[in-house]
Design a protein that fits this description.
Rossmann fold; 2 domains; two-stranded parallel ribbon; 5 strands; globular
């Protein structure tokens, strides 16, 4: 998949490990939000961008570290997942490049509760798919 390093976000100090491995990031794209935002912002290079399009972990319980942002010229940008036209263009790109999602597990619709519990555990690598039988 082209990954040259990784860190477990559940481990203490994971952002320091990421910064050491990468030298810092130019851009972070985040759909989770939550209390990890300041730690993620610390991994950005000067002039870096933090782009978010969701908050599955909710709002941060503490505020942003403002000095970190302005002293390092960090930009924060909120966005949606795009317009219907952009979604269509993305699907066309995926088809043209033959990009396929990583599937962790396919479960029958009858196991929707188990699928939801799996998703809540954050233990999957890839998508959880519910199969609808005819």
């Amino acid at each position: 998949m082209g990954i040259s390093g990784a860190a477990n976000y559940r481990e203490e100090g994971f952002t320091k490990s990421l910064r050491k491995m990468s030298g810092g990031f130019d851009t972070i794209i985040d759909s989770a939000g939550g209390d990890g935002i300041n730690a993620l912002l610390s991994t950005l290079k000067e002039g870096g961008r933090y782009i978010f399009f969701g908050a599955t972990l909710g709002n941060a319980s503490t505020g942003l570290e403002m000095a970190r942002l302005f002293l390092r010229h960090i930009r924060i940008q909120g966005t949606t997942m795009g317009s219907p036209q952009e979604f269509g263009a993305m699907l066309q790109f995926l088809n043209d490049k033959k990009i396929e999602p990583i599937i962790h597990e396919v479960l029958p619709m009858e196991e929707a509760v188990a699928a939801h519990k799996l998703m809540e555990s954050f233990s999957q690598m890839g998508k959880i798919v519910l199969r609808i039988e005819d």
